[in-house]
Amino acid sequence: MPAQLVLSIDTSVAVAVALTRTDGTVLAERSSDAARLQAERLAPLLAEVLAEAGADPQDVAKVVVGTGPAPFTGLRVGLVSAQTFALAIDAPVHGVCSLDALALQAASTLGLEPGTSVLVVTDAKRREVYWGRYSVGADAATLVRTAGPGVALPAALAEDGTTTGAVVVGPGASLYGDVLAPSSAAVHADAVTQPDPAVLARLASAAAARGDDLDPAPLYLRRPDAQVPGASKRATG
Amino acid sequence: MSEPLVLGIETSCDETGVALVRGRELLFDAVASSMDEHARFGGIIPEIASRAHLEAMVPTIRRALAEADVDLAEVDAVAVTAGPGLQGPLTIGASAAKALSVALGKPLYGVNHVIGHAAVDELVHGAFPERAMALVVSGGHSSLLLVDDIATSVTELGSTLDDAAGEAFDKVGRLLGLPYPGGPHIDRLAREGDPTAIRFPRALTLPKDQAEHAYDFSFSGLKTAVARWVEARRDAGEEIPLHDVAASFAAAVADVLTAKTIRACELHGVDTLVVGGGFSANSQLRDMAAERCAEAGITLRIPPIRYCTDNGAMIAALGSALVRADVAPSSLDIPVDSSMPLTLTHV
């Protein structure tokens, strides 16, 4: 039997993995809500979904991974794991913006009408959020990203009109609802908590069909903190 | 059965190392370094190193496999640095190794980086004797280890209480106005200077220190002593005799490291000394260790420099020793430990 499964991974919020058929059928899913424990939790969950589906790693035809944006260390756990797993089984690895999955999940969960604007916000630490703005397509299964992804202070998004008229969802909505609510259409703090890797897999298939770029490269959106040092301090006064 | 084939992955600092080792034979060692990106900051920036590790991981694994002419499916075990080192960089290697372990259905070994610096010598000079002493010196570590079995029984006799030897060299390099990393520049200057020109302090060598710190090192006070000496000359408008300062400083470091190590060998009845880690490239240390080991009748084993800097071979070598000793593999949920104890060969 030729390989026909898709292994999907996201570590942008916490940890989630899914094993699906290429037609989208979900065979096994696992997640952990322990943020910051991606490096400990991911590999056991990979083994578990394979075991539950009775699948061999060689049955995996494609690996899909959420590329963030997200805090760096956790995000890299998913990316490097997806890349090396794919290397081991000689399969391609496709990257999808994690916010795209959250937007699609929210549109589906909330039953949003075509044309509705959705603003996804996640925790970027340092009092900022990662964000992406979307428009719901003719059916709730297609979304178009109209702005972002970016990183900003929540108040800046309210000021520059990014929140205006949008349904605000994602883990950042519960953290900064009070700042985002006044200018937005609605804030649904609990609609979606973390990207569903089965949704990432569907998005990857659709993007591949369109011929989109699926480079599994991290969306850091920030430069590393590093400063060129000044002159040496004296040891004597 | 033939000797186990082990893939080793090292990412504890700025080097992405991947190597393949069969038994005690190195097949290939691939290293990608991000040092050039750190130089202008005067030190390793963990986030810059982590980003470079992610980019380099798959290409470095591919290169090691191609050069060793090995297919991943042939690998018997995957070994990776679990610590000590920088948290972010360690996480990349550990995650890669775990994913390979799951995908290949092969055991994972999370191993100790510092002990790997000693283990790598087995690839060069063969199996360790029944008992050996290991001095591991680098920019991040200065440790004295008693090795009864490289896979299962390593005792930490002492380590630095503050700066590592290589770190002290880099800091003194900076105060002398040398480019980062300063170690190689001081080494070069010191070769043409008088090591007895200035009597810099030898910390923790007095009789009163022997009860608690017989095998510990301290280089922070030495660095400050050099700074004070140089500042006093500069304030007086005098020229700094760079060669003599470098030679006297390097001699102080080499003197303390070798004196304590030889004493440890004698008191523990050990006749083989292994020196490893990036700082073992230092010529003042090499010369003094060779001279003092010869006097004491101790066999000195120092691998070639390319094995002393951080690399995947040292991790694969320790992983291979663990497999040969029938040690149980690590579980998939092991954390990385930036301050992993040096008595643990693996987790």
The count of strands of chain A amounts to 10
* Order of SSEs of chain B: EEEHHEHEHHEEEHHHHHEHEHH
Give the C-alpha Rg of chain B. 20 Å
Model regions low in confidence, pLDDT < 50 over at least 5 residues of chain B: none
Give the neighbour order of strands across the main sheet of chain B: 3-2-1-4-5
Assign a percent range to the helix content of chain A.
25-40%
* Uncertain ranges of chain A: none
Enzyme class (chain B): transferase
InterPro entries (chain B): ATPase_NBD, Gcp-like_dom, KAE1/TsaD, Peptidase_M22_CS, TsaD
Catalytic activity (chain B): L-threonylcarbamoyladenylate + adenosine(37) in tRNA = N(6)-L-threonylcarbamoyladenosine(37) in tRNA + AMP + H(+)
Cofactor (chain B): Fe(2+)
Task: Describe this structure as you would to a colleague.
Chain A has helices spanning 38-53, 72-89, 98-110, 154-159, 171-180, 197-210; strands at residues 5-10, 15-21, 26-32, 60-66, 93-96, 117-123, 129-136, 143-152, 167-169, 186-188. Chain A is an alpha/beta fold. In chain A, the strands form two sheets. A five-stranded mixed sheet of chain A has the order 3-2-1-4-5, with helices on both faces. Chain A has a five-stranded mixed sheet with strand order 8-7-6-9-10. In chain A, helix 1 (38-53) runs parallel beside helix 2 (72-89) and helix 3 crosses helix 6. The longest helix of chain A has 18 residues, at 72-89. Chain B is of the alpha/beta class and 347 residues long. Chain B contains 13 helices and ten strands. Chain B has a five-stranded mixed sheet with strand order 3-2-1-4-5, with helices on both faces. In chain B, strands 8-7-6-9-10 form a five-stranded mixed sheet, sandwiched between helices. The relative contact order of chain B is 0.19. Helix content of chain B is 44%, strand content 18%. Chains A and B meet through helix 1 and helix 2 of A and helix 2, helix 3 and helix 9 of B.
